[in-house]
Design brief:
single chain; alpha+beta; Beta-Lactamase; Arc Repressor Mutant, subunit A; 2 domains; six-stranded mixed beta sheet; 57% helix; 14% strand
Length: 268
């Protein structure tokens, strides 16, 4: 069995390459890997990091007119798309059709099969009957998708696209595979960065909610002389009776108190 996914009934084109062409491709790959190693994680956003990886991939894979990098959802039970970045607008159009409209295409196939996926004539590719024709209408004919693996785990994929027929063959796939190993580490780090920032945002929201709840408790105690437990119990009771989150009730009470204070100040 071939170690890549290719449509049945269609031969994979293997263009003859000179040694000079192979040497030039290796130099491009080496340059892309050096650039990839130079990414500073804390200096960019997740989207910027993925865009940089996509740009390096477009440079590393021979024949690519544009490329994209996809970050997979962390759950093994849900092999879906978490976030993606592209190097060109036409790639964004292609991947929008793939991920958001038809849910089929080379990247999805590569991630599901854990094998590189090649297409030399997307519009005629029987694997993606809904995705292929509209992509061909954009003038895009060739695709190469390489899964990004850490051990047995799929963390994402690199996708290269070209306007010409049969642009990608085993040579391009080999270059993509060499780039994919280090890229998988960068993409995985991007996912860790995204998750860390998400947890930090959740903690910040939780701290903000706790602060406003404490303010509301103080206002209730100041007005009624109730204990902290009694004031908190009143907030919980209102939250449950109105089916509104506790911090929303607290924010409403604090804002009302601020308005009253300002009104008294304006009258004085």
């Amino acid at each position: 069995m071939a170690d890549y996914d290719f449509p049945l009934g269609r031969a994979l084109q293997q263009p003859e390459l000179t040694q000079a062409q192979r040497d030039a491709d290796e130099e491009d790959l080496d340059a892309a890997l050096i650039d990839l190693a130079g990414i500073v994680m804390d200096a960019v956003t997740v989207e910027e990091l993925l865009t940089q990886v996509a740009e390096f991939a477009a440079h590393a894979i021979p024949g690519a007119d544009g490329a994209g990098v996809t970050l997979a959802h962390p759950s093994e039970a849900r092999l879906g798309i978490r976030v993606w970045a592209v190097t060109a607008e036409f790639v964004r159009e292609v991947d929008t059709l793939q991920y958001e409209v038809h849910n089929e295409g080379p990247c999805i196939t590569a991630m599901r099969t854990r094998r590189s996926c090649i297409s030399g004539a997307i519009g005629e590719d029987i694997r993606w009957p809904r995705f292929g024709p509209p992509v061909a209408c954009l003038g895009v004919k060739s695709a190469l998708s390489v899964p990004l693996m850490l051990g047995e785990r799929v963390v994402g994929a690199i996708n290269a696209y070209a306007y010409g027929l049969d642009t990608f063959a085993e040579h391009a796939m080999a270059m993509g595979a060499k780039f994919a190993g280090p890229a998988a580490v960068s993409v995985y780090n991007a996912r860790l960065l995204m998750e860390a920032r998400h947890r930090a945002e959740q903690l910040q929201r939780a701290l903000g909610s706790r602060s406003v709840i404490d303010q509301a408790i103080g206002i209730i105690r100041g007005r009624s002389g109730a204990s902290a437990e009694e004031a908190f119990g009143w907030l919980v009771k209102v939250s449950q009776s109105e089916n509104v989150k506790l911090h929303v009730i607290a924010e409403r009470l604090v804002e009302e108190s601020v308005r009253r204070t300002r009104a008294r100040h304006d009258r004085s």
